[in-house]
Design brief:
seven-stranded antiparallel beta sheet, 3 helices, 45% strand
Length: 244
């Protein structure tokens, strides 16, 4: 037998002795609700691993701030607005007020009523993937439900099943919002006043993987909460509420 034939037989034998590689495990399909909410700006596609208490949505003034400069100004001075968010293209700010969805120009001006939403509890985020839509939470008789709102038609569509997923509901009801590598949340900041050190809720910015952490608001005499980032990343809106 020639050397070439012997080498060929050795290769055939080695191949025959090899075990086939196991197929990679199949990933479970995503929950239907996750597919529906992941397109909304500010909603993480990964449910949280740490559950926090659900937050109370507070009413107050709407303020708009600059992320690079950490400066803010009042956008709506009346004290009965709740959960402001930017539209999908950043040209408008939506909020809840007196049982209605309202719209404001980020540059200033009066709020305009868009449509009635008597059961709306909180606005979560906006999407322009299929026309202008808003993800929102409604509350009726103490029970929460999650819906999408088509702004042009006023059509509300319920996302079934998500209300039974505790991590998802904690994420949507909470004040933390995730925008890719950027996270917005609120927490206590300490200030000195006439009575001594005091803590007020303020808005904080976190960026990964750099680990950058910045305080974006300087609310020493008010609680600043419910932040939402603009699609361009340069501006944010939040509620400023004086404690009673």
């Amino acid at each position: 037998m020639t050397r070439r034939a012997i080498a060929a037989l050795c290769l055939v034998g080695a191949a025959a002795g090899q075990q086939p590689k196991p197929a990679p495990p199949k990933q479970p399909p995503p929950d239907p609700w996750l597919v529906k909410v992941a397109k909304f700006f500010g909603v993480s596609s990964t449910p949280p691993t740490i559950l926090r208490d659900s937050e109370t949505v507070r009413a107050g003034q709407i303020w708009i701030g600059s992320v690079p400069d950490a400066t803010s100004r009042v956008l709506a001075a009346e004290t009965d607005y709740r959960s402001p968010i930017f539209s999908s293209n950043g040209s408008q700010v939506y909020a809840l007020r007196r049982g209605h969805l309202v719209r404001l120009d980020p540059r200033g001006g009066a709020a305009a009523e868009v449509l009635p939403l008597p059961d709306a509890f909180k606005l979560v985020g906006a999407s322009g993937a299929e026309g202008e839509e808003i993800l929102l939470i409604q509350r009726r008789e103490g029970a929460y439900s999650v819906w999408t709102l088509a702004v042009a038609s006023g059509r509300l569509t319920e996302i079934h099943g998500i209300e039974k997923d505790a991590p998802a509901m904690y994420a949507l009801l909470g004040k933390e919002r995730v925008y890719g590598d950027v996270r917005f949340e609120t927490g206590p900041a300490q200030f000195d006043d006439l009575t001594g050190p005091t803590e007020r809720e303020n808005v904080f910015y976190y960026a990964s993987p750099s680990g950058e952490r910045r305080q974006l608001t300087k609310c020493s005499d008010a609680e600043c909460t419910d932040p939402s980032l603009s699609p361009g990343g340069g501006s944010f809106v939040y509620i400023r509420r004086r404690p009673h």
